[in-house]
Design brief:
By secondary structure, this protein is an alpha/beta fold. The protein starts with 8 loop residues before the first helix and ends in a 10-residue tail after the last strand. The protein contains 5 helices and 12 strands. It has a single domain, classed as Rossmann fold, CATH 3.40.50.
């Protein structure tokens, strides 16, 4: 399949979502295991006092096994709740069973779960990423707003290697990630150095 010219975000989003949906469940699980292993070896992960994850959808990298393990290890794990103004609020969870379907059916914490104001390492979903750290999301702008609000933690994109492209069209409000983890390795982007979460 030929990749469309990068001139229309919606066309690119549709193309990369089709590509992501074409990944078999076996390959999804293999890639997820490799990605989680790489996350857990990062210095930023080992020094972070809090981790912000996301509720994986059926065609995304499966973070749920890692989330369960991190909770068992008493890591402060926060998941986002989508607010009406298209912003994200992160809440600490103590068990996956606490989560309820929210925006677009994505599992999220209940409103009364403890709020986490500082996330040291943020795992960022995306439809595609480029070699500068640019990100193409689902179109809701939730993560662009979060990253634009003076987010000070380490921003780690999480995706399949096939979702990494040379360049994506960007707007003024788009925000870069510091690195991208895929099943093939960790890509750190120019100008982004290794740093801890403290």
């Amino acid at each position: 399949m030929t990749q469309p010219a990068p001139n229309a975000k919606n066309d690119l989003r549709a193309y990369h979502r089709r590509e992501r949906r074409s990944v078999s469940e076996l390959e999804r699980q293999r890639s997820s295991v490799a990605i989680i292993r790489q996350i857990e070896h990062l210095a930023e992960f080992r020094t972070a006092q809090s981790i912000g994850a996301f509720g994986s959808m059926a065609d995304e990298i499966d973070l749920w096994p890692a989330c369960k393990r991190w909770i068992e290890q008493s890591i402060v794990l926060a998941l986002p709740r989508c607010l009406p103004d298209h912003r994200l609020a992160f809440h600490r969870i103590g068990a996956i069973e606490e989560l309820k379907p929210g925006y677009r059916g994505i599992l999220e914490p209940p409103e009364d779960a403890p709020r986490v104001e500082r996330v040291d390492m943020l795992l960022v979903p995306g439809v595609a990423f480029d070699r500068r750290g640019g990100r193409l999301g689902m179109g809701g702008g939730f993560y662009d707003r979060l990253l634009a609000d003076d987010f000070a933690g380490f921003r780690l994109g999480v995706a399949y290697e096939s979702q990494l492209v040379d360049a994506l069209p960007t707007d003024e409000h788009d925000r870069l990630v510091d690195a991208l983890v895929t099943e093939a390795g960790v890509h750190r982007f120019a100008g982004q150095s290794e740093r801890g979460g403290r």
